[in-house]
Amino acid sequence: MKRLLNALRRGNRDERGITGLETAIILIAFVVVATVFAFVVLTTGVFSSERGKESVFAGLQKARGTLELRGGVVVSSSGCPSTCAVSGIQFAVANSAGGEPVSLATSGDNRTIVAYRDESAVDNDVAYVVTPIVGDSDDLLEPGELFNVHIDATGISGTTDLAPNSRFTVEVQAPIGAVIDVTRQLPAELAAVMQLH
């Protein structure tokens, strides 16, 4: 009888079924944790790739809206041949390859700003005139068009004394895209019309 009671007690202490159930619960918990971790990783990856795509598109829009200088810079002088004084600066601009239309409006909020500086003058908003060379007559520079930008040098604020051998810089700051920086040096002797490369 004692053996029978011991056998029954041992049977009640057998925990093989409980151990299997605990193992199953632990495995299910691992699967759930792995699924949540995978979801977090995928969501983070999708989020970061969306941010990367937005950055690329913003960079492309900025690059596609950039203007480029076409040809040389023409400087005109008045009072020649006795007392030559620079009276105007002009250059041609166009869209870069595959560029978006750029507003060259001279007034309003969405306008292009032309800045001028030399050794004795700085003007961050120079008055300029845009004349279409190729294209329609609106102020929107579209692909395939070529516009001439003319700056009246006598209207630049500050003491502008463009003497022979002096350097000047004109910056064209379009509403979209990079800034065109045009830096040129005048020749040793001024003429009525000079093309600077």
Report a brief summary of the structure.
With 197 residues, this protein is an alpha+beta fold. The chain contains two helices and eleven strands.
Structure write-up:
- By secondary structure, the chain is of the alpha+beta class.
- Helices cover 31% and strands 34% of the residues.
- It has helices at 2-13, 16-64, and strands at residues 67-78, 85-95, 102-103, 113-118, 122-123, 128-134, 140-141, 146-152, 167-173, 179-185, 193-196.
- A hairpin with a 5-residue loop joins strand 9 and strand 10.
- The protein starts with a helix and ends with a strand.
- 16% of the residues are buried.
- The mean pLDDT is 81.
Strand-helix topology:
Layout: H1 2-13, H2 16-64, E1 67-78, E2 85-95, E3 102-103, E4 113-118, E5 122-123, E6 128-134, E7 140-141, E8 146-152, E9 167-173, E10 179-185, E11 193-196
Antiparallel strand pairs: 1-2, 1-11, 2-8, 3-7, 4-5, 4-9, 6-8, 9-10
Major beta-sheet overview: 5 strands, antiparallel
Assign the CATH topology of the largest domain: Immunoglobulin-like
Number of domains: 2
Name of the CATH class of the largest domain: Mainly Beta
Radius of gyration, taken over Cα atoms and rounded to an integer in Å: 37 Å
Strand order, main sheet: write it out. 6-8-2-1-11
Q: What would the principal axes of the Cα set say about the shape?
A: rod-shaped
Binned strand content: 25-35%
Report the mean per-residue pLDDT as an integer: 81
Low-confidence stretches: none
Number of strands: 11
